Amino acid sequence: MSKQPHVRRRYWNEPSMGWWERAYVFEVGRGLGITGGVFLRNMWKWITGRKGALTTYYPEEKRADYAPANRGKHLLTQRPDGRPQCVACNMCATVCPAQCIEIDAAFDPDDASHPKYPARFEIDYSRCVFCGLCVEACPEDAIRMAPETPDLPGFDRDRMWVGRDELLSWNPQRDVAKPYPVARDAGPPR
Amino acid sequence: MPEILINGQKFEAEAGQTVLEAARAAGIFVPTFCWHPQLSTAGNCRMCLVEVEGRGLDIACNMPVSAGMRVLTDSPEVRAHRRAILQFITLNHPVDCGICDKAGECSLQDYHYAYNGEASISAEPKVRSTKYYNLSSRILLDNERCILCLRCTRFTHEISKSMALGVESRGDVSVIRPVADRPLGDDPYSDNIVDLCPVGALQSRQFLHKTRVWYLEPTPSVCPGCARGCSVNIWHRKPEWHVKTLDPAQNQSIARVTPLENPAVNGPWICNKGRDLARIFERRRATEPMLQGSPVALETALERARELIGAARHPLALVSNWGSNEELDAFQRSLGAVFTAYVKSDSVPQPGERLEDELLIRADKNPNSAAARALYADAPARLPEGTDLVLVWGEGCDFGALPRGARLIFLNAYLAPENGHADVFLPTSVQTERDGHYTNFQGVISGFHACFAKPSGALDAEALFRSLAAPARVHA
Ligand code: SF4
Ligand code: SF4
Ligand code: SF4
Ligand code: SF4
To answer: Which residue, A111, B12, B13, B227, could crosslink B362 as a Cys pair with Cβ 3.0–4.6 Å?
Structure first.
């Protein structure tokens, strides 16, 4: 395979330098002026508690203007009775590019319309890339992502796992659109 | 040898072959649900329909070849009918793949994606049926998923001969049911029907919702349950799917055992004991070398053992018939000249266990008696008096029958009260942690491979024997 020398791509808005820019020091001074101006204005607004400051003190303070479709923290939806909608099918865990979902499935033969459920459902926020593929993959609408970001800054990566009960309860959402038929003749193993 | 044309290509078929066999032998895949090479032909699923020019559509599994036959396995007609058959088979199928343990290795899923790809066109509600029927303490039946291919019933009639299963009722309410006076639980081969079932209707309770199959990988191995030495696949988590926050034992445990087809030994079957290898290998393990019950460094224990061997005048060894050919060979080379060695039976039949039958199960419940007996004689009922040192390798030793006053070197993989009574105790690895071979009772040699890492402290017997013969560093 012959190696082609790299040719830099030219863009339509390629900057060009005149004698003023070549003189260097004036334009650099102007640039510093812009940065400094924004910094001082922001600082002043923040110190005096005015609206419009660009900095927030995360995590104590949070921005209120996340887009409604922002992919933040996951939540597990609930059935009408509050139990998880999830059937522990592992589609989300399989598709996850960060492989950060781990599920332990359990079996409940008495719950004929929902015999397989997650006994444990863990997401590792130190590795999640917030791609939303888990939400796309779920056949049960059991996992969604809320706009709010997970409140998880910390010093220990191993403590960034969030488990089933928190995912179910931090912002409970019901999926009542799906009726659960009760199987005729179904019941506990005989 | 009749010559036939499949999809326009000429093939030599063998007289008496069916079109399906001829096509598969020629490398042309014809989908099937009910057909199985080891079972009688039922011809009920219709999935193997092919077109014979001039004769129309017919099932390939039940059509003998005849000279000059022109078969089409992928004509538009065949494809249209396959789609229709899949629509028919899924008419009442729940398609609950998300909670089905077969998903990922299910013929119905695979064929649906390969030949149909369309959602059900039926407007009728699906017929509901028993979701969990208790066939035995090992197997659950989901009648909704069952496609009535009758592989399971044919297996119990033709292979295991337990006649335990039959069909009840007719039409869309027919269900597989156990025969009243022949419990499936008494069939020591019952778990084969779980593999045989082309869909997820028969589910192993051991494996129920344990994990998804695509997280697992198989390692070829040999069942140590009896002298047959069936070839098996031991399934365990793929390294890339090791869990990080769930119980880490999941990464080091046997998820399931399935047969590994081996015409020379077991064909495509194994018995239920082979499915329960976790019960053998996942007992609590011994990991510390000990001198009379007090844990010591490995070097100290080996040093003491060498001392005992050097001082003994009549040393005797009881050799394990669970040792691999390689380990037996290492023992013979390193210590065979020093010890008078006998073969010990590590395992004896358990109460209730089937002793022997014509299909697979053998009365000798140890995997490598043949290789061990080729080297040494069976241990006599009374060991010779005057023995002053006994080396016991493996389980199943009657310590009360050992010569009085003899020193004891004991090699064992599992925690046992006797470990602490030995003068020198050395912990060993188990079969799933090393490579090796067993020779079965027919003389067929089959190999097994390591699935897991050894627990820290456990050692391969091979290395131990070498270092007992000559001081050399061994690595845990
Ligand atoms: S958002 Fe993406 S990375 Fe995060 S858990 Fe879901 S699939 Fe995995
Ligand atoms: S959240 Fe959805 S995709 Fe993930 S295991 Fe549960 S049901 Fe399956
Ligand atoms: S038997 Fe196959 S198609 Fe049916 S639910 Fe199970 S995986 Fe899906
Ligand atoms: S249970 Fe499985 S093997 Fe038995 S008839 Fe039904 S689909 Fe076939």
So the answer is: B227
